[in-house]
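Support reply, case 0932

Customer input (verbatim):
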Amino acid sequence: MIEATLWHPVAPSEDVVQAPLAARLLERDIVLWRDGEGHAQAFADQCPHRGARLSLGRVHEGRLECPYHGWQFAANGQCVHVPALPHFTPPATHCAHRHAVHEAHGLVWVRLEAGDAAPPAFAAEDDARLRKLNCGPYDVAASAPRIIENFLDMSHFGFVHEGWLGTREATAIDDYRVESLPTGLRATGCKAWQPQSNLHSTAPAQVEYTYEVTAPYAAVLTKVPEAGTTAVRDWREAIALFICPVTPVRSRVWFRLAVADFESPAEKLQAFQHTIFMQDQPVLASQVPRCLPLDLRAELHTAADKASSFYRRFLRHSGITFGVC
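Our regenerated output:
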């Protein structure tokens, strides 16, 4: 399964501390913990001795200890201590199943199987003029591809986000451009009339969007409202969507915000994004089928759906099978 060779977010970095943390990714149970040097680790949440959940154990002296018989595992997965046999030296075969770990964007990312793909990029991360903070997680009864497609879709603004990102009196979608990228796609020239495009809006505005799919289950948008429509001069923002595919039809979602606002409380910035996604969530959960159809004949499409149709073709050509049908 190609999805297992990709990087996926599984938990906020701040939640991975000196205690085991259970998580689930691609229908597999994993345990996250930090070793004695403070590095995040990810193991299969199953002791190789008698199958107990390692997440029920503890971290002791930089080692992960099984709750059942106290076997202790080093950061490399090797068992280094069996309490029932204090003088026993466990062989190399006595080891927990270890997964690759990467920390970025305030999250811990896990790759279940070896692969060459890089973690999803977020270009705004290195822009010192933008403040970064996370919003979420959200547990959503929808497949990861359905959530990405919703993120790319402007046609729903006037209905799902009426009074905020759209209005029923201005629902027309002008033509825009979509180009292929190794990671997915980029859509440019996307425009929408929005009553309140961001937290600091002072007037309705024509807002220009750029969308980029940076991995099968990750995407980024940047949005710039027309001048003079925000209380913050030269307002701009970028929002990354990072999804953990828990099962084919259940996902855990984070948004990474990068905004030109270093003054507002984090809670106020997060509240705006929270409001928008809470409007999306019941619609996402209502879609049938819950997995995203990759056969373009399975659902109807128009020119306004250009980005989502392009995304479906990208998933099919990439061999993605999890969360699609």
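We compared this against your earlier run and they match. Two observations from our side: The longest helix spans residues 266-286. The longest strand covers residues 184-194. Please reopen the case if you see a mismatch on your end.
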